[in-house]
Description:
Blueprint: E1 2-7, H1 24-36, E2 43-44, E3 53-60, H2 69-79, E4 84-90, E5 104-113, E6 126-128, H3 134-141, E7 146-149, E8 164-175, E9 178-185, H4 192-204, H5 213-219, E10 234-240
Parallel strand pairs: 3-10, 5-6
Antiparallel strand pairs: 1-3, 1-4, 2-3, 5-9, 5-10, 7-8, 8-9
Helix pairs in contact: 1-2, 3-4
Amino acid sequence: xRLWLKYNGTAYHGWQIQENADTVxxxxxxAVEQIFCERxxxxxxxxxxxGVHANEFCCNFRTENPMPCETVVRALNAKLPLDxxxxxxxxxxxxxxxxxxxxxxxxxYKIWNSELRNPFLLDTVLQYKHKLDEAKLDxxxxxxxxxxxxxxxCASGSSVQDTVRTVFDASVTREGDLVIFRxxxxxxxxxxxxxxxxxxxxxxxxxxxxxxxxxxxLSLDRTKAGKTVSPEGLYLNKVSY
Length: 241
């Protein structure tokens, strides 16, 4: 079965199960065990970090229980906490794997760009009071597009050996006081999107030049990119297969 879900990640230490920490995977596997009366491992499409959200997250598991998909959705939503919701369930071939079969992912990062904080968006956006030039940052973001070794945009602590990724598109738009960075690609490194946003903020602050993104990528040097911004504005937005 393939599940599509969305969640607010504020209360969780990311997707992946950890000892002594509440995670989305842990909540979901607990609910699946209650419904199917068996301990089942659920494969996720991504390892979102603590505090990161998902508008569309895909996972899968195997069971011999013939429960109809619409019943699975209702039953799981009745067991899950209110900040996690199952959107859809569907049968897929037995060899399907939510992580390894992913063709592309799209992330968005939301910034509340106002001198006044928005108390209703706490934990779901980055609150940044200095004026952002969205047109300038949109132009700069095009520098991320292409197939490169993105080692300069990978946080330390990653065990990934292959740091080459393809970014299909990147943009910055504004909707009132909300500025949204949107990026799609065939995969992303540890904290890659958050470092991209931090780099764009440094460009806005004049710490990095607008046309420096390509040279930063080619340098393979993490210290030349911007800071890693906090997780609350990051959302896994779309997953495609």
